[in-house]
Design goal:
Elements: E1 2-4, E2 7-9, H1 15-18, H2 27-36, H3 50-60, H4 66-82, H5 86-93, H6 107-110
Antiparallel strand pairs: 1-2
Length: 121
């Protein structure tokens, strides 16, 4: 099992898909990285040689991924919360941030439904 940027890459998947296990790498960036490193997209991750892994690591270092990207995203959220922007207040309250409805959905953000006493009348 190859390890890139602190993430274990699954051996049985195509390298195009396996690279998406790294935070901040999607399909398009994965394809761009492989094209730059001159590696076949259809090759399995377990079949890569050490030279090819080194080439992928070198290209990946040009992009912000994993810990650095997570840190930046969290800092952006904290900044919004500090300046009391609309998005920041929604983050504080644990409500949907991007304009979704909340009167009948949003259970992912709001958590389990709260029981209201004396509702049955």
């Amino acid at each position: 099992m190859a390890r890139i940027k602190g993430v274990d890459i699954p051996n049985n998947k195509r390298i195009e898909i396996a690279l998406t296990y790294i935070y901040g790498v999607g399909r398009s960036l994965s394809n761009k990285i492989l094209k730059e490193a001159k590696i076949d997209i259809d090759k399995k991750a377990g079949d890569l040689s050490n030279d090819e892994l080194v080439a992928i690591r070198d290209v990946l270092n040009k992009y912000q991924t994993e810990g650095d990207l997570r840190r930046e995203v969290n800092m952006n959220i904290k900044t919004k919360m500090e300046i009391n922007s609309y998005e920041g207040t929604r983050h504080k309250k644990g409500l949907p941030v991007r304009g979704q409805r909340t009167n009948r959905n949003a259970r992912t953000r709001k958590g389990k439904g709260k029981v209201v006493a004396n509702k049955k009348k």
